[in-house]
TrEMBL record:
Residues 41-72 form a coiled coil. It comes from Alicyclobacillus mali (ex Roth et al. 2021). Its cofactor is Mg(2+). Belongs to the PEP-utilizing enzyme family. The keyword Metal-binding applies. Residues 6-127 form the Phosphotransferase system enzyme I N-terminal domain. General (non sugar-specific) component of the phosphoenolpyruvate-dependent sugar phosphotransferase system (sugar PTS). This major carbohydrate active-transport system catalyzes the phosphorylation of incoming sugar substrates concomitantly with their translocation across the cell membrane. Enzyme I transfers the phosphoryl group from phosphoenolpyruvate (PEP) to the phosphoryl carrier protein (HPr). This is Phosphoenolpyruvate-protein phosphotransferase. It is found in: Cytoplasm. Residues 154-226 form the PEP-utilising enzyme mobile domain. NCBIfam families: PTS_I_fam.
């Protein structure tokens, strides 16, 4: 039998392929005295040129696949290699100590990383990670070239990594990357969300899988169960291969649902939409038959750059999405910064409890100019499609009123300037804080719709950090406590004639679909890769049965009991 490891099921699907260790433990670098320091420096110059070429290619890939914001990261890395401060220190180390290039690069990079790390500040830690990334790239080129680059993959593999850096994820080609498994991360970490949107099976939070696997070993991965089998025996291999085949058949069956209606057997219609972070992701949502965009995480436009995007830049991005979706609805969520989403130039202070701190709507209501630029951009773009605006992290009725006042002020200014926008643009809020769920009946009077953000709602309800794998057993989206809150939200909105969507990861979990239908959810928004699976469940469920199931789930004692109820309905 192969050795079995269990982690967090992050992205559905099974795969069998050889392991490929990403950035295996740093190549060892020895200190060697050299006779010709000039020749060593020339080696560094060649390595820098090669690294910059590689970064330019990465930037182009990021631009094509993800958009300008992500591409900026690679520009920043290339700039670091041009920084005379950095290159000067490397050169000096070579000349003064008469040491080999590798040693000089490693010691300069290590010192810099140490300095940044010691500052205990989110921005500086990110800088440290960037410097480390640039340093490893340089070392790789000094030690004989780009052999370890993911872009060079030529056969199907399972990636094995501590975590995946942006420069890794951007290169993932589903044709070669059959699955990935990582030491750290939870179901809602960015790596996991990325895996689901690419439709790649993944298991994360495995602890130290990188220490137990060598490149070339065969791995069988079950992303739905969170299982990894290292060197499976024949019997296991046969079982997994049969599953892979079934999965391929299932994929073609689901593809036929691309243009089908999202309607239950007894006629209840819901909307199934996609979540995106950049305009480039719209294509994936449309390819999977998404009926709208239920969440455009606008903060991605603000990341990996040194200043906030201007009103014009934002306008262009929102307009692009509005037009690409034609008249299908698009919900733009205003800036959700803070917590796990750092944006250094906004000058957010260091906080002991960032998830309970200065973030999202709290920042926007405080930094009014930042907010106004975004609201103007969204309103202007609303003229070109069917945009809706949504405020994140609402805890109180006053916050909604204050946010709406800012929106009204932006509208008034545009009217005075004669700039066209959709006067009837719908306004909604995220329900992701338990306080908001509890007073949903009151909040419903203030807005046109709600969208439930279960990623945060679950962490706040169970007091369980969504990124902490040590307590991932407590991160229970189907815990009856969460379901009861969801019910309060839906009932509160419906009583006021308002509709309710869900854009947290639970909306894309087919195990939850029948319960959410039964609770009365009107719109489901998820990673593109889940759309067809959820539509399939909707089309095979009777609304009347779903209501009965939901009623029983609300009375269950535990999440495990809820899951057993779901299994009962399915079998
Ligand atoms: C959709 C959500 O927002 P994010 O994951 O961006 O915090 C959520 O909290 O469920
Ligand atoms: Mg959230």
């Amino acid at each position: 039998m192969g050795t079995v490891y269990r982690g967090v099921a992050a992205s559905d699907g099974v795969a069998v392929a050889k392991a490929w260790l990403v950035a295996p433990s740093e190549p060892s670098v020895e200190r060697v005295e050299v006779a010709d320091p000039q020749a060593e420096w020339a080696r560094v110059e060649r390595a820098i040129a090669a690294a910059k070429e590689e970064l330019a290619a990465l930037r182009q890939t990021a631009l094509d696949k993800l958009g300008e914001a992500e591409a900026q990261l690679f520009v920043a890395h290339a700039q670091m290699l041009d920084d005379p401060e950095l290159t000067g220190q490397i050169r000096q180390a070579i000349e003064a100590e008469r040491v080999n290039a590798e040693w000089a690069v490693k010691s300069v990079i290590d010192t810099l990383v140490g300095l940044f790390d010691a500052l205990d500040d989110e921005y500086m830690r990110q800088r440290a990670a960037d410097v480390r990334d640039v340093g490893s790239r340089l070392l790789r080129h000094l030690q004989g070239g780009g052999g370890a680059s993911l872009a060079d993959l030529a056969e199907p593999v399972v990636l094995v990594a501590r975590d995946l850096a942006p420069s890794d994820t951007v290169q993932l080609d589903p044709a070669f990357v059959r699955a990935f498994v990582t030491d750290i991360g939870g179901r809602t970490s960015h790596t996991a969300i990325m895996a689901r949107s690419l439709g790649i099976p993944a298991v994360v939070g495995l602890g130290d899988i990188t220490a137990h696997v060598a490149s070339g070993q065969v791995l069988a991965v079950d992303g739905s169960e969170g299982l990894v089998v290292v060197e499976p025996n024949e019997e296991e291999l046969a079982r997994f291969s049969a599953q892979v085949e079934r999965q391929q058949g299932e994929r073609s069956r689901l593809a036929a649902l691309r243009d089908a209606e999202s309607v239950t057997l007894d006629g209840r219609r819901v909307e199934i939409a996609g979540n995106i972070g950049t305009p480039a992701e719209v294509a994936q949502v449309l390819a999977q038959g998404g009926e709208g965009i239920g969440l455009f995480r606008s903060e991605f436009l603000y990341m990996n750059r040194d200043t906030a995007p201007t009103e014009e830049e934002q306008f262009a991005a929102y307009k692009e999405v509005a037009e690409a979706m034609a008249l299908r609805p698009v919900i733009v969520r205003t800036l959700d910064v803070g917590g796990d989403k750092g944006i250094p130039y906004l000058g957010l202070p260091h906080e002991d409890n960032p998830f309970l701190g200065y973030r999202a709507i709290r920042v926007c209501l405080d930094q009014k100019e930042l907010f106004a630029a975004q609201l103007r951009a969204i309103l202007r773009a609303s003229h070109y499609g069917k945009l809706r605006v949504m405020f994140p992290m609402i805890a109180t009725v006053e916050e909604v009123r204050a946010a709406k006042r800012e929106l009204e002020a932006a509208k008034q200014a545009l009217r005075e300037e004669g700039v066209p926008f959709d006067e009837d643009i719908e306004v909604g809020i995220m329900i992701e804080i338990p306080a908001a769920a509890v007073v949903a009946d009151r909040l419903a009077r203030e807005v046109d719709f709600f969208s439930i953000g279960t990623n945060d709602l679950v962490q706040y309800t169970l007091a369980c950090d969504r990124l902490n794998e040590r307590i991932s057993h407590l991160y229970q989206p189907l815990n009856p406590s969460v379901l009861r809150l969801v019910k309060m939200v839906i009932d509160g909105a419906h009583a006021e004639g308002k509709w309710v969507g869900m854009c947290g990861e639970l909306a894309g979990d087919p195990r939850a679909t029948a319960i959410l239908l039964g609770l009365g959810l009107d719109e489901f928004s998820m990673s593109a890769g889940s759309i067809l699976k959820v539509r399939d469940v909707v089309r095979n469920t009777r609304y009347e049965d779903a209501k009965a199931l939901a009623a029983r789930a609300l009375e269950a004692d535990t999440e495990a009991d809820v899951l057993r109820l779901v299994e009962g309905l399915r079998s």
